[in-house]
Specification:
The chain is mainly alpha-helical. The protein contains 1 helix and no strands. It is rod-shaped and about 40 Å long.
């Protein structure tokens, strides 16, 4: 269970960073 939540948080963090980079780039 902990591993799944960790992967879920990791995916959210990656998506957030990607959106932030996109916003700064454009």
């Amino acid at each position: 269970m902990e591993n799944l939540s960790f992967i879920f948080d990791l995916k959210i963090m990656i998506k957030t960073m990607f959106v932030v980079l996109l916003g700064k780039g454009w």
